């Protein structure tokens, strides 16, 4: 198994996509930034110098400490502390974990819904295609953030005392079902690709031999349309993270005891004009770094998978 994996990695490294990555400084830099952010978020329990959300370890006497390099800063807190004495650096790492989890989960759900409906619409056609596309048009007529805000707000109203799991599920659903960054983009993209693929010779041959439509879609059409889906999913991860941060900033996102980057920015915004700028600036910088690096990787992947640019 080890030799097989090594051979696969070697082939990938020397492929056209691997060569495109090696010769693109922007892609390498974006991958490095994304790796550092994701690593710190996933392994926050071991990397973070403090546990910022453990009430037993908080010291109110350390509240509003500036970053270490400013006058009054402490070597114990590199990026300073907030109003409750929580270490900003540690809070950013833990908050980024929540943002990435919600973003990736919402994109995964959007891919499943959008690809399934797009395949069905493009392959079956007729009234099924018309109905699914009209639903997409209706959803796209509303701003995505308003749709997500409406779903999240209704979820909070229906489950005011819900557990953290229910809150996270409602938040993921609200982002996935929103038009601009949700399943609609995948459905429209996959439908267009499926309309091209369904008239290819290999699909016609499979139909003649008696293969079922479901098997043709799953085994023959789907693998040939995954390229655009991968590119779109990479870019939409950043959109989903920003949408989650926006909802958390507005107070309908993740629960306060599991704050994301949006929640940290919202808390720091209260003290921005009192001179404690670091409480909101550093979480905002982390959000920008994650979104920008993922977007740059998505742009590179789109160009790398485009045969016309090779």
Lay out the secondary structure.
Elements: H1 2-13, H2 16-22, H3 25-42, H4 44-47, H5 88-124, H6 126-140, H7 144-158, H8 164-177, H9 183-197, H10 201-208, H11 213-224, H12 226-249, H13 261-269, H14 278-304
Helix pairs in contact: 3-5, 3-14, 5-6, 5-8, 5-9, 5-12, 5-13, 5-14, 7-8, 9-12, 10-11, 12-13, 12-14, 13-14
Family: Belongs to the binding-protein-dependent transport system permease family.
Main location: membrane
Protein name: ABC transporter permease
- CATH 4th-level superfamily: MetI-like
Q: Tell me the series of helices and strands, N- to C-terminal.
A: HHHHHHHHHHHHHH
Q: Estimate nothing, just give the exact number of structural domains.
A: 1
Number of helices: 14
User: Which structural class best describes the helix and strand composition?
Assistant: mainly alpha
Percent of sequence in beta strands:
under 5%
| CATH architecture tag | Orthogonal Bundle
Radius of gyration: 23 Å
């Amino acid at each position: 198994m080890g030799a097989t994996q090594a051979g696969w990695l070697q082939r990938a490294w020397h492929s056209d996509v691997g060569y495109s990555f090696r010769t693109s400084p922007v892609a390498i830099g974006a991958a490095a930034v994304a790796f550092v952010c994701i690593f710190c978020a996933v392994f926050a329990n071991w990397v973070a110098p403090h546990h910022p959300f453990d009430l037993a370890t908080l010291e109110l006497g350390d509240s509003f400490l500036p970053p270490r390099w400013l006058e009054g800063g402490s070597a114990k807190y590199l990026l300073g502390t907030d109003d409750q004495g929580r270490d900003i650096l540690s809070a950013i790492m833990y908050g980024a974990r929540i943002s990435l989890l919600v973003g990736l989960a919402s994109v995964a759900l959007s891919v499943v819904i959008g690809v399934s409906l797009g395949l069905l619409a493009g392959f079956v056609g007729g009234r099924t295609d018309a109905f699914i596309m009209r639903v997409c048009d209706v959803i796209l007529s509303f701003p995505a953030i308003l749709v997500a805000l409406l779903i999240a707000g209704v979820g909070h109203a229906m489950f005011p005392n819900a557990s953290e799991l229910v809150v996270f599920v409602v938040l993921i659903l609200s982002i996935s079902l929103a038009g601009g960054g949700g399943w609609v983009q995948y459905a429209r993209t996959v439908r267009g690709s499926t309309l091209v693929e369904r008239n290819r010779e290999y699909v016609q041959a499979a139909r003649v031999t008696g293969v079922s439509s479901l098997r043709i879609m799953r085994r023959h059409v789907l693998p040939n349309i995954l390229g655009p889906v991968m590119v779109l999913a990479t870019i939409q991860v950043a959109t989903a993270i920003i949408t989650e941060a926006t909802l958390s900033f507005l107070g309908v996102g993740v629960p306060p005891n599991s704050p994301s980057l949006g929640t940290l920015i919202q808390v720091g915004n209260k003290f921005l004009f009192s001179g404690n700028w670091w409480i909101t600036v550093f979480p905002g910088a982390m959000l920008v770094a994650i979104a920008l690096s993922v977007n740059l990787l998505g742009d590179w992947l789109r160009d790398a998978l485009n045969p016309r640019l090779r």
